[in-house]
Amino acid sequence: MNTENDTPDLAEIPLKTVAEQWEDFRQSTMPHVTDEIQIEEMRRGYFSGFFSGLVSMSNMASGPRTEDEGAAEIEKWMNECTQFFHELTVEHYGERPPKH
């Protein structure tokens, strides 16, 4: 756990398939949604976003960047997503999410 910002150390997160990650996301964000169309549209968006990230990483890895430049780009993406999820958490729970 990164105590500076209360986020998990990425090395501590077990690797899962995209489908497993989708199911975790679905259960945590829309556990009571039963509308199959809404669920399918969210699943498509989730997989599309994941694929987009993979394409971006693949393009970066095959481009003319140094390892340090690539790491800096990944760090920017990570910071962007961390900020997004922080704002989402504050919007729904206030400054701290509920303990599970």
Which properties best describe this structure?
single chain, 100 residues, mainly alpha, 3 helices, 66% helix, globular
Description:
The protein is an all-alpha fold. Among the domains are: 36-65; 66-100. It has three helices and no strands. It starts with 17 loop residues before the first helix and ends in a 7-residue tail after the last helix.
**Over all CA atoms, what is the radius of gyration?**
16 Å
Distance between the amino and carboxyl termini: 16 Å
Q: Give the overall pLDDT as a whole number.
A: 86
Helix content percent band: 55-70%
Outline type = globular
Topology, pairings included?
Layout: H1 18-29, H2 36-62, H3 67-93
Helix pairs in contact: 1-2
Brief characterization of the structure:
The protein has 100 residues and is an all-alpha fold.
